[in-house]
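Deliverable D4.2, example record:
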Amino acid sequence: MTDGSLKINKTPHQVRLWVHPEGLVTGSLFLRHEQTGLPPTESAYEVINQADPFVVLKREQTDDVRFYNRNSIIRVEYAAESFHIEDKATTLHCRLMMMDGSILEGAISEILPADQSRLYDYLNKNNVRFIRLHLNEKEICLVNKSYIIQVSPLAND
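Output generated by the structure prediction step:
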């Protein structure tokens, strides 16, 4: 007997994962939503930063479901639904050099306490494994801090 009372409402959200050593994987993460037809109540950023060691991804090419170890995910990229920076957000422009040799440039826009609003402070936040980098107005990249070699602040444009 299944009455659906144990079902968790989730919506697929298309992403591109760079996984070590597999490489680029395209598919969808599942974001929680309260009611069908409404926007998700959680973001890809929240899903990828959960404490559980594995995350569920529905593969695009093969349509199968896989569980990826968060420690092996280098970065996650996806289209931003909208580009709106909160008035109270601190914007930190930076360049990241990754272990695979790639260089990512963008802006971190987060609401940060005044006494912890430096790039150094944000990078050292202990409660998140992935940082959110706005590559441009249309793309967001969640970067696993474990795969970053160095970060350089950039002048605001």
